[in-house]
Amino acid sequence: MPVGRVETGTMKAGMIVTFAPVNVTTEVKSVEMHHTALELASPGDNVGFNVKNVSVKDIRRGNVCGDSKNDPPKETEEFRAQVSSSLHIADISCLVFSIFCRSALIAVDLFDITRIMLMSLHAQ
Known about the structure:
By secondary structure, the protein is mainly β. It is 0% helix and 35% strand. It is built from no helices and 8 strands. Strands 1, 2, 3, 4, 5 and 6 form a 6-stranded antiparallel beta sheet that branches. The chain starts with a strand and ends in a 15-residue tail after the last strand.
């Protein structure tokens, strides 16, 4: 049973979903939250869901699940992100490093810094 948070859109039984980047498509048999069946999961809900004919070996932590009929998820070569760092400002540069992207640890090439925002540790 895959588990995760609904970030955008909704999820309900009977939907055809695609997991990316493995490109596995299947039907959602049921959706539940805290062992209680849900008719509809909304953004912010942490859910578990049963899917047809998908082995635990076919999908893994960090895969993204989306509606196959409405803009299914797919692999990308690059993306724009807001990154928070505990490094000193002088230590930030374009480099290769690992980040946590929701629940997955992924390797990324940081190739462009568009803006640096300084945050005060003390409330004013």
